[in-house]
Design goal:
- With about 675 residues, the chain is an alpha+beta fold.
- It folds into 6 domains: about 55 residues, no CATH class; about 60 residues, Arc Repressor Mutant, subunit A (Orthogonal Bundle), CATH 1.10.10; about 170 residues, Rossmann fold, CATH 3.40.50; about 100 residues, Elongation Factor Tu (Ef-tu), domain 3; about 120 residues, 3-Layer(aba) Sandwich (Rossmann fold), CATH 3.40.50; about 100 residues, Elongation Factor Tu (Ef-tu), domain 3 (Beta Barrel), CATH 2.40.30.
- Helices cover about 30% and strands about 30% of the residues.
- The protein is built from 20 helices and 34 strands.
- The protein has an 8-stranded antiparallel β-sheet.
- A hairpin with a 5-residue loop joins strand 18 and strand 19.
- The radius of gyration is 38 Å and the shape is flat.
- The termini are far apart.
- About 30% of the residues are buried.
- The N terminus is likely disordered.
Length: about 675
């Protein structure tokens, strides 16, 4: 029996013509003898086997198996029908959890356009979609409770929130007065940008599409040798989210209300945002020079909204202005500085800078750019900083007029270069000791952010959702890919579009981002039956020459409310339409012609309107409707015609109805969408 277990070198290495079979034969012979004769024929087999598979002997049943019997095999566990997955998992780990081959997982990922090696880490959303595609239900593993780690003295001293970092743990002797940060709010076209234009004495309005500010601008103005920082938030209702962010970053809010229009919907929204932030308000009553201006009516409307001006016994400052004529501007700035002196806005200009991202965008030549508002410390060129979960370094800084600067003190808005990617407008930034510390802090923030935003609205617009092709039952979807020039415009567009969904239809944003519309966007839209919407962005050269342009509906806009209105109309077009009948004409049957294998043909005189081929018809007799159907043939003198007008005779064949009689009335009509 030991003779049978001897193998040639080719068989041992598995390179012979039956290498695989010989391996199993070796296993069979080695376990078939209880006296160890098989091991004697392979002097090194025991050690070799022991090193390769140390558990082989332990898992064998006592006494081995009967001589000559089949080899004992460990049955593979059947694939589970339900599994739990962590927030992140590698392809190999996922395959092991599902008891499937990693190749199967990789194939499914490839079907979705993801080329992932076996060691690639994928997030929970992507893994869940892949698992469900393979017939496995997925549940998330509840995150473990973080272990309590004793903080260092430095960590204990570090405040946890932005407000604490700005104002706490700072000795009073280090606090100095800083310029006030003023946010200008109000309804669309009430004159906010015109007011800022008058203050800064520079024409910005002409550069804005449709006369409406498209994204937040940050500027500094001088009055009586004192600086005032202004934030200009767009007034259209689509910018609600952006306006709220501006109010959170400000010290004083100027609410612009047109004296002729009065309080409007966006005026009320602005008041709510400012009041929620606890920011003092100054009302700039604009357009007082107009003939139909009614100042008293506006003040009463403001009182109805909870803003009681000083003339009515309240504490809200109200300044009449005419921005185009530069009337009342000095009075307004005087009140801004007066309120700033009363409030005593201070900050610590020493130490590492902390602040807020006001705006961000992707510039073709300069890369990622961000407008920062420094709120504590001094930001310097060359500083390492972390913005949200992004680590970078300040390579260059520019003031609100585009001049290069090397440092920025509190309340100063600056544009910086040096970030590896576009940050999110509204995020906070903080200067770190070194690049390494910035990267470590960014990594820690990214992990924390993933846990906080797993179910947030922003998650619903990420690329991972592209592959979630789930059946929506009776719910209809309009799928959209959105590209915008800056992040500050992208956020309100998404916010406004999400509000258009209702119970009968659903709007789904497959992907959003900043930058040109690329060929990848077109490929995604083609694969997902989506439309592509661009705001202030062109198509990339590759996209312009793509064959997919013939398949994908690409729309570009320069004014946001036109974008929102078009999508709203598209959504209404997806609803089940309501139709009503519109009568085309009537005809009276004068004779009946029986045609073999064709049925009866009505010889008619058109008495009113027009009878059209393929029109819908109703056949009436004695005031009652006998049949409703469709014309299948319309002739004049044996010739097929498309229509016959009043006063002419014709032959009409009605599809599926022969029970006609002389004197019957045929009414032709078509459906009109209401």
């Amino acid at each position: 029996m030991a003779e049978k277990t001897k193998s040639s070198p080719e068989q041992k290495s598995g390179t012979g013509p039956s290498g695989n079979g010989n391996q199993s034969q070796q296993k069979k012979s080695s376990g078939s003898s209880q006296d160890g004769s098989a091991n004697k024929s392979r002097p090194r087999g025991q050690n070799s086997r022991g090193r390769r598979r140390p558990t082989a002997r332990r898992t064998a049943p006592p006494g081995g198996r009967p001589p000559g019997g089949p080899p004992r095999r460990t049955e593979a566990a059947p694939p589970p029908s339900e599994i739990e997955l962590p927030e992140y998992v590698t392809v190999r780990e996922m395959a092991e959890i599902m008891h499937r081959s990693p190749i199967d997982v990789m194939k499914v990922l490839m079907n979705f356009g993801i080329m992932a090696p076996i060691t690639q880490t994928i997030d929970y959303d992507t893994a869940a979609i892949v698992a469900e595609e393979m017939g496995v239900k997925v549940n998330p593993i509840a995150p473990e409770e973080p272990e309590e780690v004793e903080e260092t003295v430095e960590e204990k001293a570090a405040p946890k929130t932005l407000r604490q970092r700005l104002y706490d743990a700072t000795p009073d002797e280090r606090l100095v007065l800083r310029p006030p940060v003023v946010t200008v709010l109000g309804h669309v076209d009430h004159g906010k940008t015109t007011l800022l234009d008058a203050i800064r004495k520079s024409n910005v309005v002409a550069g804005e599409s449709g006369g409406i500010t498209q994204h937040i601008g940050a500027y500094q103005a001088f009055y009586h040798d004192r600086k005032i920082t202004f934030l200009d938030t767009p007034g259209h209702q689509a910018f609600t989210a952006m306006r709220a962010r501006g109010a959170q970053a400000t010290d004083i809010a100027i609410l612009v209300v047109a004296a002729d229009d009065g309080v409007m919907p966006q005026t009320r929204e602005a008041i709510a945002h400012v009041q929620a932030a606890g920011v003092p308000i100054i009302v700039a009553l604009n357009k007082v020079d107009k003939a139909n201006a009614n100042i008293d009516r506006v003040k009463q409307q403001l009182a109805d909204e909870g803003l009681l001006v000083e003339e009515y016994g309240g504490d809200v400052i109200c300044v009449p202005v005419a921005a185009k004529l530069r009337q009342g501007i000095d009075d307004l700035l005087e009140h801004v500085l007066l309120l700033a002196d009363i409030e005593g806005f201070k900050a610590d200009p020493t130490g590492r800078a902390i602040g807020t991202i006001i705006e961000s965008s992707l510039d073709k030549s300069r890369g990622a750019t961000a407008t920062l508002l420094v709120q504590k410390g001094t930001l310097k060129q060359g500083d390492a900083l972390v913005v949200g979960s992004i680590a970078g370094r300040v390579r260059a800084m520019f003031d609100s007029k585009g001049h290069t600067i090397v440092s920025a003190t509190p309340s100063t808005p600056v544009e910086i270069l040096g970030l590896p990617e576009v940050p999110t407008a509204g995020d906070t930034f903080e200067v770190m000791e070194s690049d390494r510390e910035a990267r470590e802090r960014a990594t820690a923030r990214a992990e924390s952010e993933r846990q906080r935003t797993e179910s947030s609205a922003r998650k619903s617009v990420s690329l991972e959702d592209v592959f979630a092709q789930m059946k929506a039952g009776q719910v209809k979807e309009l799928r959209i890919i959105i590209k915008a020039d800056v992040d500050g415009s992208l956020e309100p567009i998404i916010s406004s579009l999400n509000q258009l969904s209702n119970d009968e239809l659903r709007l789904k944003i497959l992907h959003s981002g900043t930058g040109d519309i690329t060929d990848s966007d077109l490929m995604l839209a083609s694969a997902s039956d989506a439309i592509v919407i661009g705001f202030n962005v062109p198509l990339s050269p590759a996209a312009q020459h793509s064959d997919l342009l013939n398949e994908v509906d690409v729309r570009t806009y320069k004014v946001i409310y036109e974008l929102i209105d078009d999508v709203d109309k598209a959504l209404k077009g997806m609803l089940e339409p309501v139709y009503e009948d519109e009568v085309l004409g009537t005809a009276e049957i004068r004779a009946i012609f029986r045609i073999p294998r064709r049925g009866n043909i009505a010889g008619c005189l058109v008495t009113d309107g027009v009878i059209q081929r393929n029109a819908l018809v109703r056949v009436g007799r004695n005031g009652k409707i006998l049949f409703s159907g469709k014309i299948h043939s319309l002739k004049r003198f044996q010739e097929d015609v498309n229509e016959v007008k009043a006063g002419f005779e014709c032959g009409i064949g009605i599809e599926g109805f022969d029970d006609i009689a002389e004197g019957d009335i045929i009414e032709a009509f078509h459906k009109v969408r209401v």
